[in-house]
Amino acid sequence: MHLKLPPDLDLAEAHAVAERVEAELLRAPGIDAVQTHLEPLERPVAARPAGGRDADEDDEQRRIRAIVADDTGGRPCELRLLRSDAGLVVFLTISVGASTSLTAAHELAGRLEEDIRRGAGHIADVVVHTEP
């Protein structure tokens, strides 16, 4: 499990947080091991104020919606674009069948991430959330 924590924490503090998370997860039935990987949080990303979209952002939304339609046959449940110092961050929520296996849903999310990034060097990150 990846844990993203404030970058100014020292390793001892970050490790203590990880141990608390691991201990809580181990209390759940059927979980007998948890391994965490610590990463520093990136600087906060500020959302563009409402109404601040430009033609490039509209074009990017159309491009992403077309990719979702090609890959899933449907439309995104939610699509948000945020600008960061590193580039554009895409937050995408899609609906998949409730009986879809976790593996298949994860593979679809990965394919969408790859397809959205392909040829778009200005995209810093793509986060795909699947809903049943």
TrEMBL record:
Residues 1-40, 58-132 form the Cation efflux protein cytoplasmic domain. This is Cation efflux protein cytoplasmic domain-containing protein. Residues 37-61 are annotated as: Disordered. SUPFAM superfamilies: Cation efflux protein cytoplasmic domain-like. It comes from Baekduia soli. It comes from the Bacteria. Pfam families: ZT_dimer.
